[in-house]
DNA sequence: GCGCCAAGTAAACGAATGTTGACATAGGGC
DNA sequence: GCCCTATGTCAACATTCGTTTACTTGGCGC
C-alpha cells in the first residue's frame, strides 16, 4: 500500500506559472505574505463564496503555509474582513467627483464589469459576494452598494432633495444589478454566450443599456 | 464531562411553526417526503449556495431523516439535480410557443423576478445559485441558463440559423443577467431602494429595460 | 390477524474543515 | 559571529461534512 499524500498544501517550489505573487518571494516578508493572502482570498471568496472557500485553497494560491492565515488574520473570518475593508476604500476612490460626466462614469463601470472576471478587482468581490454568514460583512457590502448607487444616480441627474428624480435612483440600481448579473454569469457559471462574448460587442451592448437607463428622460 | 448532543437532526415533533409541509405528515408517504426535501433544498440552495448548504439542514427543514436524502436522491448532488430538473421543466412550460408574444414573455419574466424573493420559485434557485464547487451541479445550471437564454432570444426574433440575429442572443442574456442581479440585490443583500421598491414601479422599470433590450431593432 | 416489504431511524465511517501548539529557520542587531 | 526574535513549517486536534450500514417500524395485501 502506498503512502497517501500527507498534505494538500503546496510547497513554494511548485508555484506553477501563476504570476499571483507580484514580487518573487526572496526572503521572509510578513507584509508581502499578508498581501498575497488577501489577494488570493479576494479571488476565492468572489468566485466560490465565503463558506465554499477553504483556507487551504487560499494558502495554496498564495504559495504560503495554511497556519499563517491564523497567525496574521486570527481566523478565516478575519481574513474576509480584511478583504472587505480595502474594497470599501477603493470604491470611494473610483467614484467620480463631477456628476455631469455621465458617459465617463458609464464607461468606467462597463470597463469594470467586462474586465472583472480576469482580475482581482475589489468591485468583483463586492458584486459577487453573497450572504456570507457574517453580519458585519453583509452590512459593509450593503452600505457600499447603496453608496455607489447614489453616486451613479447623482451622475444621472438624481437629486436627493427632489423627490421627482426618485425613479433615477431606481434605474441606477438596475444598472448596478445588471452589472452584478453579467459578472456572475461570466465568472461564476461561464454561461454562453456572454462568457465568451467579444469584448467590444459586450462593451457596446452594456453601454447601450446603461445609457438607455441613465440618460435623463423627462417623459415617464 | 457532559455528553455531546449526538445529532443535529430535529425530530418531527418540533417543527416549530413552519408551514413548509403543505400537508400534515400523517402516515408514511415517499412522494410527500421527496417533495418536502426538494422544496427545502430549493430554498437552502438558493439562499445559502450549494456548498454552504448541508444535507442535515435540508433534512431538518423538511422534518425528515438525513439518510432519506441518499435513499431517494442517491446523493446531495442528486437532490440538487432534482431541484434543477423541475426548474427546467417549469421554464419550458412558461416559454411561449408563439415567438410573436414577446410582451407576454417579458411580463412573465418580470413577474418571476419581482416575486422571487418571497417565494420558493424554482427560477429563484436558478438565478441565485452561484458556483457550487461541484462540477456536475455547475454544468446543470449552465445548461439550464443557456437553454432559457435561447428560448427568450427566440421570442425576441433570434434564429440559430441566421448569424445576423446573434446580437439578439446576447441581449437576451443581458436581460437574464439583469434579472439575476435584481433578485440578488433584493434577496441576498436587501439593498435599497430596489429591495423595498414599489412593486408596480419596479415592474414598470424592468419592463422598460427588457423591451428596450429585446424589441426587434434592425439598426445596429 | 399476520407476515412482508417499503419507509423511516440511529449510529457510525472516512474525509475534509478551521484551528492550534510545538518546532525549525532565516536574518538583522549587537 | 552569535543569538534572539520574527517568520515560516509540520503534525495533530476537534468538529462537521456526506454517506453507508444495520436496524426498527408502520401499513397494506392476503
From TrEMBL, chains A, B:
GO terms for molecular function: DNA-binding transcription factor activity; transcription cis-regulatory region binding. Residues 1-10 have a biased composition (Polar residues). Gene3D superfamilies: Tetracycline Repressor, domain 2. Residues 1-23 are annotated as: Disordered. Residues 54-73 bind DNA. Pfam families: TetR_C_16 (PF17920), TetR_N (PF00440). Residues 31-91 form the HTH tetR-type domain. InterPro entries: DNA-bd_HTH_TetR-type_CS, Homeodomain-like_sf, HTH-type_TetR-like_transc_reg, HTH_TetR, Tet_transcr_reg_TetR-rel_C_sf, TetR_C_16. This is TetR/AcrR family transcriptional regulator. It comes from Amnibacterium flavum.
Amino acid at each position: 500500500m502506498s503512502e497517501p499524500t500527507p498534505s494538500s498544501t503546496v510547497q513554494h517550489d511548485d508555484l506553477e506559472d501563476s504570476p499571483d505573487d507580484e514580487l518573487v518571494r526572496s526572503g521572509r516578508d510578513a507584509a508581502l505574505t499578508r498581501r498575497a493572502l488577501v489577494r488570493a482570498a479576494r479571488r476565492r471568496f468572489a468566485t466560490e463564496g465565503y463558506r465554499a472557500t477553504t483556507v487551504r485553497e487560499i494558502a495554496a494560491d498564495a504559495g504560503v503555509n495554511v497556519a499563517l492565515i491564523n497567525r496574521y488574520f486570527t481566523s478565516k473570518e478575519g481574513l474576509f474582513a480584511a478583504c472587505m475593508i480595502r474594497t470599501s476604500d477603493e470604491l470611494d476612490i473610483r467614484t467620480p467627483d463631477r456628476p455631469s460626466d455621465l458617459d465617463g462614469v458609464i464607461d468606467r463601470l462597463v470597463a469594470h464589469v467586462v474586465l472583472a472576471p480576469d482580475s482581482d478587482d475589489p468591485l468583483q468581490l463586492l458584486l459577487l459576494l453573497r450572504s456570507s454568514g457574517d453580519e458585519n460583512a453583509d452590512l459593509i457590502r450593503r452600505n457600499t452598494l447603496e453608496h455607489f448607487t447614489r453616486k451613479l444616480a447623482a451622475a444621472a441627474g438624481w437629486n436627493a432633495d427632489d423627490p421627482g428624480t426618485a425613479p433615477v435612483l431606481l434605474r441606477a440600481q438596475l444598472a448596478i444589478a445588471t452589472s452584478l448579473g453579467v459578472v456572475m454569469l461570466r465568472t461564476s457559471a461561464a454561461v454562453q454566450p456572454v462568457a465568451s462574448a467579444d469584448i467590444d460587442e459586450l462593451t457596446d451592448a452594456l453601454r447601450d443599456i446603461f445609457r438607455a437607463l441613465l440618460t435623463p428622460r423627462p417623459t415617464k
